[in-house]
């Protein structure tokens, strides 16, 4: 990890993309009785998830630790896909969570919970409509087309923790897109792209939803999480192809989420197939 250096003029090499202020973020988010214990901002690292998991394993981080990178050179999505973007063009951060009062069987809801928190926070702070693609993608509309602007990756950290990583393209320009299917908040017409208030809004939303879910013992229905995710999920009601481990695939209509957060796909032969892991392809609009 490369720590922030106030004397590093390269931090201001793109005036449209000012650096984050770690001290101001701590003042705004770290409080007695709150979730967040510390917020660290580094200039450059490989993966915030890997760094925070290693820190937790060494006893150097507790629940509520947040690690933010201005640039991530080896960011990972699901299926080990790489996530890279220009410095300060997005939000790349990880949070350590330890939901001791929630049965481990319900921890699979954490990436879905984070998706709801991110979408809710961005709606408040950026004024942009977002949708969730099951299980962990954030979608925006650019030029009438659905584009991926963010992703979530949750990984176990020891026996009692989960590191949840989030990557969001904020000011990525059209000529900077890694693939044509990518998007950003700016390209989607966001009303605000200042990363400081965006990050604060997302982290406050995550604190709110995580607290509600924990208080309900991880029950997705009682906490309102299942209903909220269902309302914002762009996958439901569409014909999809689920590409599963072992080179298998299931095609059908995504009709519901079950109590474990699995996607239920109704196939042409009348089978209701639950999918807990896999790559989902939207075949046609709802």
Automatic annotation (TrEMBL):
<dbReference type="Pfam" id="PF02237">
    <property type="entry name" value="BPL_C"/>
</dbReference>
<dbReference type="GO" id="GO:0016874">
    <property type="term" value="F:ligase activity"/>
</dbReference>
<dbReference type="Pfam" id="PF03099">
    <property type="entry name" value="BPL_LplA_LipB"/>
</dbReference>
<protein>
    <recommendedName>
        <fullName>biotin--[biotin carboxyl-carrier protein] ligase</fullName>
        <ecNumber>6.3.4.15</ecNumber>
    </recommendedName>
</protein>
<dbReference type="InterPro" id="IPR003142">
    <property type="entry name" value="BPL_C"/>
</dbReference>
<feature type="domain" description="BPL/LPL catalytic">
    <location>
        <begin position="24"/>
        <end position="214"/>
    </location>
</feature>
<dbReference type="InterPro" id="IPR004143">
    <property type="entry name" value="BPL_LPL_catalytic"/>
</dbReference>
<keyword id="KW-0092">Biotin</keyword>
<keyword id="KW-0436">Ligase</keyword>
<dbReference type="InterPro" id="IPR004408">
    <property type="entry name" value="Biotin_CoA_COase_ligase"/>
</dbReference>
<dbReference type="InterPro" id="IPR045864">
    <property type="entry name" value="aa-tRNA-synth_II/BPL/LPL"/>
</dbReference>
